Sequence to fold (566 residues):
Amino acid sequence: MSVIAFLETENGSFKKNASEVASYAHAVAQKMGGTAVGIAFNATNAPEMGTYGIEKIVNVSDNGLESFNAQGYAHVIAEAVKKEESSIVVVGSSADAKYLAPLLAAKLQAGYAPNVVAVPDDVSDFTVKRTAFSNKGFAFTKISTQTKVVGVSSNAFGAHENQVDCQEEAFSPSIDTMGVSSVEIDKVTGKVSIADADIVVSGGRGLKGPENWGMVEELAEVLGAATACSKPVSDMGWRPHSEHVGQTGKPVASNLYIAIGISGAIQHLAGVSASKTKVVINNDPEAPFFKAADYGIVGDAFEVVPKLIEKLREFKAQNS
Amino acid sequence: MKILVCISNVPDTTSKINFTEGDTQFDTNGVQFVINPNDEFGLTRAMWFKEKQGASVHVATVGDASTEPTIRKALAIGADEAIRINAQPTDGYFVAQQLADVVKNGGYDLIIAGRESIDYNGGMVPGMMAEMLDMNFVNNCISLDIEGSNASAVREIDGGKEKVSTALPLVIGGQKGLVQESDLRIPNMRGIMMARKKQLNIVEPIEAIAATSTVKFEKPAPKGSVKLVDSAEELVQLLHNEAKAI
Ligand SMILES: Cc1cc2nc3c(=O)[nH]c(=O)nc-3n(C[C@H](O)[C@H](O)[C@H](O)COP(=O)(O)OP(=O)(O)OC[C@H]3O[C@@H](n4cnc5c(N)ncnc54)[C@H](O)[C@@H]3O)c2cc1C
Ligand SMILES: Nc1ncnc2c1ncn2[C@@H]1O[C@H](COP(=O)(O)O)[C@@H](O)[C@H]1O
Fold:
């Protein structure tokens, strides 16, 4: 019996969420008395996932899947599931993972639970805890099909080291149809994406205008963070739509979320409350966001943020 | 072109989320139900295809009679016909099977669904449907154009976007970006009057299984109160020593 983990790569290297997906698969495999197997596409250093308890990696290369294709990937993963006789498939919460998971689940006639934050207490019953209602609640969802697909949330179960020897095996099943072809990928280079970021710095309407985003970018740069914004900020065109976070924008589940000049409307909070530590900088002590924050500074962003940048620079200089 | 827009009936974004019956049911008391925002973007795009390219637009929902006001709203916005599959939407797998059956019988070319329902955040119905129907699928779709049977779409990816080309029959998981926020329509009196005359077909569900079931709900633990700090220096120290976030 094995648990198979879809471990995402970018340019051959494992993405940050791969270690969390691997750790989750390992934890479930332990509970079932089975092994954790990984499946990766074009990984250049596949065995390094042994750090997180993966005993074998099925590494797919050479079959026209140099870049992501949901149908192609789902087909290959389904083949690997059959080959490895896996009953549980674990995937992450990236845009790609969420794209292929339902295709894969339907192919395997498997139930799928997304946004899962913990391993099931009892693997024979397989009830998982997951976020629902845009983080306003949790649902305990039982997957009752024989094969199960679990999508794990970022920054929830976490990465846990469990060093084992990891074998690599090449795998290249043929693919008949890909359905959708990539024409062009437009990615901001040299900047961490909201999905992959450990820290997200976000600005709201309190920043008055797009010309004031210099300090937000600078703060993000000091922290190695991604930049984000509230909905009205993207609606007014101050920032690109891709930075809009919240219930109708991108979800954020970072380690640290810093909100500057954002009031904390329910739709905004719903999308960002999965972040571990939340910091709010707002000049209105009554701003609702303070109720949902861990740390707050009541003050004018135009004074607080430059100071924060200065203090962080000093801190980084001392601690590096 | 025949378009089916799949509409999920969800609590308004401002709803307070509570549970009843020993935390096994979502408490609908005082909750206003609306068209799932992701589906509203999709429906609005469908209206564009109707007006500019002569497409016919049907909407479908899997739900009991209580979902009818939401469907009527979709008709008032401009959909031509509506279908309600008379069943509780127990899980995504079950819903996908019901909708796939409607698609098969209705001969649709384009299925517009949303990236996810904002209630259970499943994000699975469109993908499952595409697989069951052997149709092409684009998720997180933020732009869609159709010419003949060719489709050109943009999907949001982590850190950017990807332009893709594909063909009908096609399922999309749409979201904000598919149309401008300002294109969203509030039904007017005429639309509401016309909607009353449009067909709302009620069909019984096909036999299908649910693959998952929610056995219990839980509210997030109440948040401890915020620690207000006076200086940036203190904040940096707390983030380092206490939160271990930097
Ligand atoms: C269906 C629906 C979906 C929605 N989805 C989302 C979503 O996904 N994401 C989202 O963000 N919103 C969403 N919204 C919008 C949401 O309701 C709020 O309108 C929005 O989040 C407010 O953005 P804001 O906090 O930037 O602006 P405001 O509410 O205007 O807040 C600005 C804040 O800045 C503070 N401020 C002003 N000047 C300063 C200063 N000098 N220094 C420090 N602070 C200052 C003010 O005190 C205020 O608290 C949605 C709304 C609807 C109806
Ligand atoms: N009960 C339903 N009836 C019709 N369409 C639905 C239903 N549930 C989900 N959908 C469609 O599937 C999309 C994704 O929903 P979900 O998989 O539930 O997150 C929604 O945006 C709808 O387009």
Notes: Chain A touches chain B through 91 residues (CB under 8 Å). The pocket of flavin-adenine dinucleotide (ligand 1) is lined by residues A 204-206, 230-233, 246-249, 261-263, 265, 267-268, 271, 281-284, 287, 300-302; B 13, 37 (CB under 6 Å). The mean pLDDT of chain A is 96. The two ends of chain A are 45 Å apart (CA to CA).
